[in-house]
Amino acid sequence: MSDFQELVKSFPKTREYIRDFFVYGFKTREEFKYKSSRTYDNERRRLESWLGGYVRKDHAANGSNISLAIDSNLLDTNPLFQVWKTKSFTDNDIVLHFLILDLLRDGTERDVEEITDCLLNQYEVLFEAQTVRRKCNAYGKEGLLCKKKAGKKVVFSLDDSIVTWLRSNENIWDALAFYQMADVFGIIGNELSEQLDFHNETFRVKHSFFVYTLEEEILLELLDAMNREMNVKLEIRSSKRGNVSTAVCTPLQVFTSTRSGRRFLCAYIKRNKRFTCFRLDTVKHVSPLEPCSHYGELREKLDRNRQKLWGVSFQSMGGRHLDKLVMTIQMREPDELYIVDRLKRERRGGTVTKIQENIYRYEIEVFDCNEMLPWIRTFIGRIVSFECTVESVRWQFYQELRTMYRMYEIGGEDSNGTIFRNT
Predict the structure, then answer these.
(1) Which helix (H) or strand (E) element contains residue 363?
(2) Omega before residue 288 within 30° of 0, cis
(3) pLDDT tens-place string over residues 142-157
(4) pLDDT digits over 249-306, tens only?
(5) Helices 129-142 and 91-103 sit at what angle, rounded to 10 degrees?
(6) pLDDT score for 1
(7) What 3-state class would DSSP assign to 56?
(8) CA dist 80 to 102, 203, 295, Å?
(9) By the 8 A CB rule, do 268 and 217 touch?
(10) Mind listing the pLDDT tens digit for each residue in 119-142?
(11) Which residues contact 183 (CB under 8 A, 6 or more apart)?
């Protein structure tokens, strides 16, 4: 039996477990179906090693439930950044890492043969030139080393000008502290702050969605494809059924929910000739394909369609191109004009019309009216009438009212099926 290792080789697998522990939690060992029980134990032990202070264990009849309890407004950094700092390595990897960086600290440009000779002469370690070349090329690709051609040779050097500049400009350190808390790819600000030995003592974020840092490897690949205007192939695992599927599409934009922080990739699927949004946390792998010759046209079309988008769904439930919803509300003027102000502020392209004293009508055409129901429910108690071209949406709205009235025994239905409220 192999010994447990805290370091990881496969980050996607670890990402799944961390997300489940953090977002869902309260799962026992038997409820994790991705891999074997041994895999679950290894991932749990890694989690406890990285985030021991935030792990909560609740005992249940069929075992222990593990979850993460993280209050963002009390923290000076995102503790999940630690997950990105645990990649596995061999003995040669770690030795070469420190020796090559230490050797090139003097700023001198050297080719692979010179680096190999210096490792032997200065540090008394012998490596094959091919091993050193692979390591230098990998670091050049990742940006740790500068790689360029000098005559017939390829030379490498260490460029620490950014850190040197940051050390001499302390007035920018708070900007790094804010960046790591408030923006995507905050791990960059966190890494630079650690190199400066600087700790965030200024900023706290009341509502921060820490878990979404686990998606940023996927997000970076998608943004790169958008910048290069390329098609991609996505590997997607369903969040409900767990089955894996693929989709060939053109990535166009990333939408972020201000309420939940959840991010969605908006893409065009040529096969279906329509726009579709994918939850970013369901995308497991991104493979770049050929460039898209009409990328600009698709962006312009998306900008037009977004005017009729309520959330992230472009799918009309009624089989039409657009669904229409009409809601009439009642309020007391002038004391409750704030209700009308809110309706106008949140209407998202809809129209608000006063049809008589204390009565206003809201009308809108969108791709998917079903997405509007959570917002519509916030006006319950003031809604006089509700109509929608999608019968299932209308039925669901009134069915929820019936359920609520029965639960609280405050109303009923007459012989025509009309809902009424006891007065």
Answers:
(1) strand 359-366
(2) no
(3) 888 999 898 888 999 9
(4) 999 999 998 778 889 999 999 998 899 999 998 899 999 999 999 999 999 999 999 9
(5) 70
(6) 43
(7) strand
(8) 29, 17, 35
(9) no
(10) 999 999 999 999 999 999 999 988
(11) 189
